[in-house]
From TrEMBL:
Keyword Lyase in record: yes
Alphabetical list of InterPro entries matching this protein: Crypto/Photolyase_FAD-like_sf, Crypto/Photolyase_N_sf, Cryptochr/Photolyase_FAD-bd, Cryptochrome/DNA_photolyase_1, DNA_photolyase_1_CS_C, DNA_photolyase_N, Rossmann-like_a/b/a_fold
Keyword vocabulary terms for this entry: Chromophore, FAD, Flavoprotein, Lyase
Binding note for cofactor: Binds 1 FAD per subunit.
Positions of region (Disordered): 178-206
Transmembrane parts of this sequence: none
GO molecular function: deoxyribodipyrimidine photo-lyase activity; DNA binding; FAD binding
Binding site for FAD: Y222, T234, S235, R236, L237, S238, F266, D364, G365, D366
Cofactor: FAD
Name this protein carries in UniProt: Deoxyribodipyrimidine photolyase
Family: Belongs to the DNA photolyase family.
Site for Electron transfer via tryptophanyl radical, residues: W298, W351, W374
Any one Pfam family match given in the protein's UniProt record, by short name: FAD_binding_7
Length: 458
């Protein structure tokens, strides 16, 4: 009379449908997390996410202990370890939330087959990584398995609504005989590389605190402030949503409850997240292959790519974003957009190069959101205006009008006042001499020409 609850991207006890289902089906439950070697082998483990994940697992263990349980940790191949543990615990069922990536689906299939061989059952629940599960709303028409355009998706998403929030279980009885294993450190999860210096704290309590503060002091002003680079007025909930420390269902319900334009705009962003997940769930290859338009005339200039990664392109607003990423493992959405446009449409470098760099650093790095936002910016994805180019100087004027974002992240220019900071090449005298800020890596009109040539628009 034992079931296993296999945690994945749902590292929480509140609104946890998989844990609740396991507790309903058996008297005792083994809450299991497998440090899956396959994730590391697939190149998806990176120091910043490892640090956040280590904190999230420790917090989940604490949350389960408050309820008389504990988290059981195993390391190795997720299928082999789960089978072994289910045998050891005498479990009849293993409960798991559906994933959306090709990797998750393969894992599910292997698990179902392996457990069936052992005479056990894998129970796969709706995906809990999104507010509305992928596939729950579909466009009409035969064979259409996902929405390719956001606006009609969003209308259906709103009409569908999100399921009710589940309370956290009062107690989680775990069989005594099962060995706990050791909670992994960030180093155990990712031995190579060093985490960025200013990462957020992982885990459900930290996520719930942040969401509480956000509802009190951020949400109402979200619509007005969401694009203000220096204002930093977004929720920063993305890593908590990525690891499932926060339930998107609960976030949508609570935010909607506040009402108003801020809440509406915020919920719309959460629907964007669901949108990308339902694209990936139907088109696994979109993680690496062009989703719609195919472009194969990308350039690759090592010096230009390195300048972009290091935040030394000579365009201060681009460099500010890239340096924020290095320092915090996070970047403002508006900055992500303009640095991605700069890489793919001004330097004309393949979006996969940028997406890889983001995944190496982002603490919220997520296959669905990252790859599909990159494809959007590169014009290979779901954007219905694939040829728009974001001019970094126009973006800077609109979204960092006083230059405060640039001064925060580019110390060489900290002494330059006002919007002049966006065009350091025009500075004379002491402003120019300040620090060794580089010349622009490419002229913007030359960049535009590259773009037009490659897209056959010349
Ligand atoms: P808020 O503005 O407070 O938004 C609330 C939540 O809505 C976010 O936490 C996020 O979960 C969701 N959201 C907001 N904007 C988007 C969007 N455009 N697409 C999907 N979901 C969104 N987001 C990731 O979570 N992981 C990624 O790997 C990722 N890579 C990106 C790469 C590029 C090139 C671009 C342009 C965007 C990327 N985004 C990614 C989307 C977005 O930039 C981040 O979700 C957002 O900046 C996170 O900050 P926040 O939590 O303060 O967002």
């Amino acid at each position: 009379d034992v079931a296993v609850c296999l945690f994945s991207s749902d590292l929480r006890v509140h609104d946890q449908p998989v844990l609740r289902a396991a507790l309903r089906s058996a008297r005792r439950v083994v809450p299991l997390f497998v440090v899956d070697r396959g994730v590391a082998d697939a190149g998806f483990m990176a120091p910043n996410r490892a640090a956040f994940l280590a904190g999230s697992l420790a917090a989940l263990d604490a949350g389960l202990r408050e309820r008389g349980g504990r988290l059981v940790i195993r390391t190795g191949d997720v299928v082999a370890e789960t089978r072994r543990l289910a045998a050891e615990a005498g479990a009849g069922e293993v409960h798991l939330a559906a994933g959306v990536s090709g990797y998750a689906l393969r894992r599910e299939r292997r698990l179902a087959d392996g457990l069936a061989e052992d005479g056990r059952t894998l129970v796969v629940h709706d995906a809990v990584i999104t507010a509305v599960p992928p596939g729950a709303v579909l466009p009409s028409g035969p064979g259409r398995d996902h929405f390719a355009v956001f606006t009609p998706y969003f209308r259906r998403w709103q009409a569908e609504g999100v399921r009710a929030v589940l309370a956290a279980p009062r107690s989680v009885p775990v069989p005594d005989a099962v060995r706990s294993g050791t909670l992994p450190s960030a180093r155990d999860l990712c031995p190579d590389g060093t985490p960025s210096p200013a990462l957020p704290e992982g885990g459900e309590p930290a996520g719930r605190r942040r969401f509480g503060n956000w509802q009190r002091s951020g949400l109402a002003g979200y619509q007005d402030g969401q694009d203000d680079l220096a204002g930093d007025a977004t929720s920063r909930l993305s890593p908590y949503l990525h690891f499932g420390c926060l339930s998107p269902v609960e976030v949508v319900h609570k935010a909607t409850g506040h009402g108003g334009a801020g809440a509406e705009a915020f919920v719309r962003q959460l629907a964007w997240r669901d949108f990308h997940h339902q694209v990936l769930a139907a088109r696994h290859d979109a993680a690496h292959a062009d989703y719609r338009a195919r472009h194969d005339r990308w350039r690759y200039d090592e010096a230009e790519v390195t300048a972009w990664k290091e935040g030394r392109t000579g365009y201060p607003v681009v460099d500010a974003g890239m340096r924020q990423l290095l320092h915090e493992g996070w970047m403002h959405n508006r900055a992500r957009m303009l640095v991605a446009s700069f890489l793919t449409k001004t330097l004309y470098v393949d979006w996969r190069v940028g997406a890889r760099h983001f995944l190496d650093l982002l603490v919220d790095g997520d296959v669905a959101n990252n790859q599909l936002n990159w494809q959007w910016m590169a014009g290979t994805g779901t954007d219905t205006r694939p040829n728009r180019v974001l001019n970094p100087l126009v973006q800077a004027r609109r979204f960092d009008p006083e230059g405060a974002y640039v001064r925060r992240w580019v110390p060489e220019l900290a002494g330059v006042e006002g919007a002049a900071v966006h065009r350091p090449w025009l500075l004379t005298g002491p402003g120019r001499a300040a620090g060794d800020y580089p010349e622009p890596v490419v002229d913007l009109s030359e960049g535009l020409l590259r773009f037009k040539r490659a897209r056959g628009q010349e």
